[in-house]
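Minutes, methods subgroup
Present: GH (chair), OT, SY

1. OT presented the first of two proteins processed in the latest run. Sequence and structure tokens recorded below as shown on screen.
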Amino acid sequence: MRSTIRKSISDHRRKIAFGLLIVAVLFYALGTGFPFFYRLLFTLLALVTIGYGWAWLNLRGLEVRMFRVGTRGHIGEYLDAQVQLVNHTRMPKSWLEISEDTDLPQPGGRTVALIKGQLRSFRIATYLSRRGVYRTGRLRVTARDPFGLFRLTRSYLDYQTFTVLPQTVPLPDLDQRFANLPSDSVFSRRTPAITPESSTVRDYAHGDSLRRIHWPYTARMNRLMVKEFDIGVSAQAWAVLDMERRSHLGEAPDNTEELAVTVAASLVRHWDESATPAGLAANGSESWMLRPDRRPAQLGVLMEALAGLHADGSLPLDRFLQDLRPHLSGFNTLMVITPSRRPEWVSVLVGMRRQGVNVAVCYIDPATFVDGDAGALTGATGQTTADYLAQHDIPVYMVGQGDDINRQLSHPLTPRTAPAGERATEAERVAQPAAA
């Protein structure tokens, strides 16, 4: 990007200097009438005409093709493409700059020259340094004249969408209460509805539907027998990501937003590898609520959602948790990932804990992204919030800038030891805004 800007400034200065030269020669030609200045003026105008015509003809008769496999990649990989250029004219092509017209950081490019009827094939690669959803697939060909006065650009092909998935970290030491969820065990609950889960049979009673009759067992027992149905509910894991803009600090790409997304992506991948149904909820500019599912494509769906998430939401975390609460049960495990320094959401989590939901918090420490006294004050607020949650049996995992995520998620924080009166005062101070 910087090299492109430098080239543009250099070309602009060159054009200004050449234009001033023409004006000066024209002034002396008209002022003195010497044939030398007229010849020099005509020569300069001819150079301008030839240069523009050269650059214009360089872009004519070109055929551009690009071959690329896949529409998704990960941070740290390269976006590769095979580009082919064919010259269908008699005129040779020189000083052609081919680059991808994309909003990806630092797009790849190449400079080539072609003779009559020649086909050139080459590879361009763009380093994927930041997650997101980008426009790719469109090529920009720039032609220059031999004098460096003109740069004409023409675009080829159509835009396509490419998704850069967020970075993930292996979690071999994840806390056991979240690493080994009982995804294969099913909790039975009796239901009058007909479901795929049938647990037992009993004698027919007046009013039973004929659809409930177990005909093979009826024939064996020589009397009407009906099936009893259960509803099977398996353990499910949720990653709840706080994407309210007021909660996050720092400049991209090293900020609380990126760290929170990395933690969420790592948890989702770990749950998928352990065959635990994983879901995602986030309060971005639009509220996301992707329910846990066992489909093989679930991991890809969640990763694509995380790739496009940004801290641009306006819905507070406490209200978002209240909206999510009716969708949860005692068989759900909830990991809330937030850097929020406001305590209103704490009481909502305590209520979920009392409801029977297995709740935990991954607190993105904002103090590590702030310098000076503000960082110390923020750190004290975060520690107080963590202490209050720990007192209500809600484990808190603190992750800061530069921390080893696997290590930080291996064990929860231990609440500070303080006098009972001091702890009560801090708890009341944290819970008071939520109660209001």
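2. SY then presented the second protein from the same run.
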Amino acid sequence: MAKFDETPIIKDPAKEGVLTPPPLRENAAQNVHCWHSKEKDTSKIGYPSELVPNWQEKAIEKFGELLDSYKSLRVYMDTCVRCGACADKCQFYLGTGDPQNFPVARAELLRSVYRRYFTPGGKLFPGLDGAADLDEAMLERWYTYFYQCSQCRRCSVFCPYGIDTAEITTAARMIMAEIGYSTKYVTEVIAKVYETGNNLGIPPAAWIDNCEFLEEDVEEETGMPVRFPVNEVGADILLVPPSADNFANVETMIAYGKLFHFLGISWTTSTYCDEGGNFGLFLDYKNLKKVNNRILEAARMLNVKTIMWGECGHAWRAGIFTPTLSGPMDDFDPPYPYHIAQYVVKLLRQGVFDGKIDKSANDHRIVTYHDPCNPARAGQLLDEPREIIRAACNNFIEMPPNTIREKTFCCGAGGGMLADEIMPVRMAGGKPRAMAVKHTQANYLATICAICKAQLPGLMQYWEVPVEVGGTLRLLTDALIY
């Protein structure tokens, strides 16, 4: 495989980290592929695990269904003028130097097939107007490059026509899944949700055991009887965290417990749905809806008052569509999706924490904040995490303006790309974020996404950025005066 360019992309730190693409490396990422799905997983989510015999016919049929069902997709197929405004906006191009990772070039893989089979010119004159057959070579390019798109939608911010590249990527993945060409990582995670209630495949007994362990551990460390309740009926709040918070990002899980203990609020998690993350978002709409339905089902089973989403990026992007995906939330307060960051900021503004925060407790930390793609661009959680950080810390520094908020760079592992077999692409794609963090010289990188928390530590080590990665709530609860 061609070597990725490893020179920093920040040209001049004195000018707030002006970004410039690395030297072009032709087709640097073309041989990096996700592993294919397994029958044990695809059978649970309604797809074949191997390429079906009449796959071309089935693929074009599915493509037509999507064009008829989602008018925006047809608009995106017809609208692009290939102006190149998006070309240098994708972190996977910036990291790999592969021109096929221009967002417009990646989308052209789908558009060329669209022109061939769904436009008069392509049908009559297949060799003209950029039309292309959906043959085995094109299918392989789809599989490679539509899984080198994290659906972060950064390119869409800069598109003069507002083309949503994430919808194009999703369409290509849905077509491939229909004909038996899906990835092991995404399908395995969705199957685990249906089996165990969470993405990691953690059995209910293990979830309960770990919550009990956390109770003992926190009390031993702090002397406080902080509880981590499970399956408690009638609690005020059902917290739907990413399952990783209970096993990998335990400092975030501990922060949830400390926060609710401080507030005196009854809360619970559910072993029926102990997962906010929704990998249906990375595959298709039917599984997106089915996975999301479990949240409302769990909340009604436990008769809770409020559903609250935890620190997970794609959980929030899927969660904000809950009333559309899963039906009205009128029996909850509030009757709409509610993020824990929104809840904390509301309490901050009400004065609940007045006189109860010792910001000096975080003085050993120089904090910067990474906007995860989904909360920032899709969920508009831009100010709330920053308000929490500023309330808890004296030393907060933003990354360069062109790398944050709506223009934030992906960590390099979103969109179903947190797979070991594509580690070179992940490290390359995360390079713009790593260089922006290095520019701040922070020693604590805060974020509110479990995928980011899984990707960023290794990414920072790879690009030699000495920084600790953690959540935002941890900063607040570390500074609370109990």
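Chair's summary of item 2: The chain has three domains: 13-182, 197-338, 356-479.
Next meeting: continue with the remaining queue.
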